[in-house]
């Protein structure tokens, strides 16, 4: 009787997520590609490990080599900077090299695949150690959520390598029959995790901006003060914080200051990152709307927030109260 193995079930789930992303939300970029590749790899694992399809066994290591490389390129292109073939194209040599090893040195794959997963996972975590301002292409509304999501994705890539190590251990110990079970459960679980997290709206890159990630000049206290004076004036006059698509990249372009210099000036002058600097002003605007009798939802949208979860989180951080509680207190006070 034909059964539905765990990886094939995972593939079906990922395909549904992929179609929802592409057809319903109209997002066709690297995040959609990452989910699509995860779905493909999950199906390949099912065909190779459960149904014993020979060609699928040949494709499996190539797909495995592609996933961490694509995750890294997706991270860079959606959160850090625009995709550039001369810098990012080299990462797609990973599956090409895996295919070469498959033909000429298959034993190398036992080292290559775990190394790719661990290496790219660590690389993502290293970038995230620089703080929320290391992701200038993402909406400031999301606060630190994108960093957390990408940290989990990076950790899951590293965890995927553990399944390869476990497979080797079971083979050495004479329990090779456990290999399909280990692959089905651990790898499929990680593919679902990476694919599912990639759906988050908090990872959705804002509309295309001209790249402004030029290197910042040395720290200058007087220059920081001048930048902050210009920034505070521009933010107050143009009410930039009301734009839900506002990013560090966009602020940098409007002010004519490199991303790193602007981010550094805000960090050093306020002690907070750019996201908190902007969201504090959004919360202030929401408080004004609530005090004027507006609903929580209308205050959220008026202040430049797209999602209720981000709004509630930032409102609580700034005021110490939930929006509804703050509104009731304000009305009782009046």
UniProtKB/TrEMBL annotation:
The protein's GO terms of the molecular function aspect are: DNA-binding transcription factor activity; sequence-specific DNA binding
Q: Which residues form the HTH araC/xylS-type domain?
A: 225-329
Q: What does the UniProt keyword field contain?
A: DNA-binding, Membrane, Transcription, Transcription regulation, Transmembrane, Transmembrane helix
Q: Mind telling me which residue stretches traverse the membrane in this protein?
A: 6-23, 30-52, 58-77, 89-105, 111-128, 148-169, 181-200
Q: Does the keyword Hydrolase apply?
A: no
Q: Which SMART domains match?
A: HTH_ARAC
Q: Which residues form a coiled coil?
A: none
Kindly indicate whether the keyword Cell wall biogenesis/degradation belongs to this entry.
no
Pfam entry (one): HTH_18
Entries under PANTHER family matching the protein: ARAC-FAMILY TRANSCRIPTIONAL REGULATOR (PTHR43280:SF29)
Name of the featured protein: HTH araC/xylS-type domain-containing protein
Species of origin reads Ascidiaceihabitans donghaensis
């Amino acid at each position: 009787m034909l059964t539905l193995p765990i990886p094939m079930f995972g593939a079906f789930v990922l395909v549904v997520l992929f179609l929802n992303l592409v057809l319903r939300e109209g997002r066709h970029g690297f995040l959609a590609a990452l989910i699509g590749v995860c779905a493909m790899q999950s199906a390949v694992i099912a065909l190779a490990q459960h149904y014993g399809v020979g060609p699928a066994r040949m494709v499996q290591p190539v797909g495995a080599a592609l996933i961490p490389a694509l995750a890294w390129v997706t991270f860079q292109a959606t959160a850090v900077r625009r995709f550039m073939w001369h810098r990012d194209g080299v990462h797609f040599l990973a599956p090409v090299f895996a295919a070469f090893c498959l033909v000429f040195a298959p034993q190398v794959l036992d080292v290559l695949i775990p190394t790719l997963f661990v290496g790219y996972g660590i690389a993502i975590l290293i970038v995230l150690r620089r703080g929320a301002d290391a992701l200038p292409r993402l909406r400031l509304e999301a606060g630190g959520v994108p960093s957390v999501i990408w940290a989990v994705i990076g950790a899951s890539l590293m965890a995927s390598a553990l399944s390869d190590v476990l497979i080797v251990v079971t083979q050495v110990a004479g329990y090779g029959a456990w290999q399909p079970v280990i692959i089905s459960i651990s790898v499929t679980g990680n593919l679902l995790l990476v694919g599912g997290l990639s759906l988050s709206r908090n990872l959705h890159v804002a509309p295309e901006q001209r790249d402004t990630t030029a290197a910042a000049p040395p720290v200058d206290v007087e220059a920081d003060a001048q930048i902050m004076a210009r920034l505070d004036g521009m933010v107050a006059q143009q009410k930039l914080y009301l734009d839900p698509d506002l990013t560090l990249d966009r602020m940098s372009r409007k002010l004519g200051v490199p991303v790193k210099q602007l981010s550094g000036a805000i960090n050093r002058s306020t002690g907070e990152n750019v996201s908190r600097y902007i969201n504090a002003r959004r919360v202030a605007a929401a408080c004004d709307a609530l005090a004027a009798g507006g609903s929580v939802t209308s205050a959220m949208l008026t202040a430049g927030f797209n999602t209720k979860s981000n709004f509630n989180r930032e409102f609580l951080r700034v005021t110490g109260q939930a929006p509804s509680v703050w509104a009731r207190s304000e009305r009782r006070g009046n």
